[in-house]
Amino acid sequence: MFILLFLEKKLQMTNNDYHPLPQPHELTEREKEDAMGAYLMMFAALATSLPLPVINLIAAIVYYYVNRKKGRFIHFHCLQSLLSQLPTILVNWGLLYWALQIFFFKNFEVNDYFYAYLGFSIVANLIYFIFSIAAAIRARKGVFMYFIFFGPYAYQRVYATQNSLVYENEQPPANAKQNLNKPPF
Q1: CA distances from 17 to 6, 14, 173 (A)
Q2: Which of 74, 68, 63, 24 is nearest to 40 (CA)?
Q3: With the C-alpha atoms ordered 77, 78, 82, 83, is the resulting torsion angle positive or negative?
């Protein structure tokens, strides 16, 4: 049911429902660097020397909220990077929990399932690492790279005309409502 509603809504949208995509020559170097930085948040845990998956997530969330209003290009890459970290973070949390249960609390024993999950975790992290580095390089060049699932969602959220966020590098719409300061009485 949800999929049918989503497809129906997608069919109703036209190109007029989206802002135009910026071309690489239209972006400033600063915008390209900020967009690239969103994908480099995966190294936050390495910088702290802690094997905790939540460090990457916290760094990505902070980076997203600090940079999302700088421009649509930056907002898109920050959102896509943040969303693409969620599956690997969940996989890493599962591995960390399982490893703690085995090695510190002695609740489980090492078995073939653990090694299979460890292998799956390594492969998932390698895929995420490769795609993030490729996306960072492309963002630095001013080119979009759409991750499966996360890219189309980020595009819809950021470039849809319903997006009411005002960006620093764009003029606010003429019909934008501005709140006036009033005294408290």
Answers
A1: 16, 5, 15
A2: 63
A3: negative
List the one residue out of 167, 177, 159 whose CA is nearest residue 70.
167
What's the pLDDT score for residue 8? Answer: 53
Below-70 pLDDT ranges, the chain: 1-15, 49-51, 176, 185
Q: What is the pLDDT of residue 55?
A: 86
3-state secondary structure the chain: CHHHHHHHHHHHCCHHHECCCCCHHHCCHHHHHHHHHHHHHHHHHHHHCCCCHHHHHHHHHHHHHHHCCCCHHHHHHHHHHHHHHHHHHHHHHHHHHHHHHHHCCCCCCCCHHHHHHHHHHHHHHHHHHHHHHHHHHHHHCCCCCCCCCHHHHHHHHHHECCCCCCCCCCCCCCCCCCCCCCCCC
> What pLDDT score was predicted for residue 13?
55
* Helix axes of 112-140 and 72-103: crossing angle, nearest 10 degrees: 160
pLDDT at 19: 94
Looking at residue 168, its pLDDT comes to 92
